[in-house]
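Researcher: Let's do a round of design. I'm pasting the structure tokens now; please hold your answer until I've finished.
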């Protein structure tokens, strides 16, 4: 007798990267746009990504029933400064120029909740960029890949060429802290999603 199918997670996100990672890991899910406004504050980046991940998850929990809800928020942080999504070409180029030749952190908050419990965690991945030339910056910005990306880059795209070294979870930089999620699913739902 086979086990019943795992209930799909409810992913509170419009991110195609997060959907792609869940598909890659064969975790069943349904995506729903969170009913949550991401206001920017000057809070500690870790507290901020945790608060926003929790806000996204809680905003859709009412339609989840008994299914687990997943909320995630990611920021790029260099020397304590948060680099969000650039508003235009000029801001994207300025962000990338500041990340050039340095090591920054990609910090994600993750909230996994059901009606019975809530898990709230964060994870950081260190990413080192090589020194980028003005020509490389200009070509990248003209590619438009920076749009809707924290820090103004997509590591899974053309910006892979910028990276010298990564310490931590690569998929966190793409948009979802997969190692953390897998560990939580293994602990909270042993065997249900294929982990633990």
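Researcher: That's everything. Go ahead.
Model: Designed sequence:
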């Amino acid at each position: 007798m086979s086990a019943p199918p795992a209930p799909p997670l409810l992913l509170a996100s419009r991110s195609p990267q997060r959907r792609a990672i869940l598909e890659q890991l064969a975790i069943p899910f349904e995506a729903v746009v969170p009913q949550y406004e991401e206001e920017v504050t000057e809070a500690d980046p870790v507290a901020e990504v945790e608060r926003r991940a929790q806000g996204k998850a809680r905003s859709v929990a009412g339609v989840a029933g008994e299914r687990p809800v997943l909320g995630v928020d990611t920021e790029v942080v260099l020397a304590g400064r948060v680099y969000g999504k650039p508003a235009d070409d000029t801001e994207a180029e300025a962000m990338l120029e500041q990340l050039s030749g340095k090591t920054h952190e990609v910090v994600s908050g993750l909230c996994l909740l059901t009606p019975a419990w809530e898990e709230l965690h964060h994870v950081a991945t260190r990413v080192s960029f090589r020194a980028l030339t003005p020509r490389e910056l200009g070509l990248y910005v003209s590619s438009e890949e920076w749009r809707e990306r924290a820090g103004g880059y997509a590591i899974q795209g053309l910006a892979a060429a910028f990276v010298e070294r990564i310490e931590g979870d690569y998929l966190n930089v793409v948009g979802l802290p997969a190692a953390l999620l897998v560990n939580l699913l293994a602990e909270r739902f042993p065997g249900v999603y294929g982990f633990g």
